[in-house]
Amino acid sequence: MVFKEGSVLLRIGLPAELAAMFGGVMAGGAMASRFDVSLGRMFVVVLVSAIMSDGIAYQVGHQFGSATLGYRVLIVRRERLLAAHRSLARRPCLAIVLSRFTLFGRRVLPTLAGATGIPYRRFLPWNALGNVIWSCALVAVGYQLGYMDRDVVNVSAAVFLLGVVLVVVVDAALWRLRSHAGPGG
């Protein structure tokens, strides 16, 4: 889910924060006995997923330009996009690190960085730093939440898993509708 949220191809889904925190929950407390997941492994999975997702978004932006951001970002969210562009131009390192902490930043800034020609060797270390901080914080919060009351954790896990199933079903349905709509609509 962390990887999927950053994808420039699949635009809907649960926020990656929930997936990262749920991973922490699975590694600690009441759910740890059900899942054979260590805190360290969960952190690595979340971190690698986030970095790979941003790397793919960067490459798509680099290859195809900002048009890949889509109508909603280019037209409807124009002011936010322009602010992100200005931030990237003024302080690219800070913008890249902080982009991980907002939904808009996670979905737009890596593609925008690629489209504006920031070299990948400059993008990657700052992106990795932001992802390390983000992943550590959220997996650790989830880990602590895993030690809450067992019933609360079980209900939360069931709701999260239901959400994942719904996202997959809706994504598949939307993909099918788009693929059958043709170029005109």
UniProtKB/TrEMBL annotation:
KW Disulfide bond (keyword) present: no
Membrane protein topology class: Multi-pass membrane protein
Protein localization: Cell membrane
Gene Ontology CC terms: plasma membrane
Keyword Membrane: yes
Keywords for the protein's UniProt record, in alphabetical order: Cell membrane, Membrane, Transmembrane, Transmembrane helix
Primary location group: membrane
Transmembrane segments: 12-32, 38-58, 128-146, 152-175
InterPro entries for the chain: DedA-like, VTT_dom
Name of one Pfam family that matches: VTT_dom
Residue ranges of domain VTT in the record: 14-144
Similarity field: Belongs to the DedA family.
Protein name: VTT domain-containing protein
Organism the protein comes from: Streptomyces tuirus
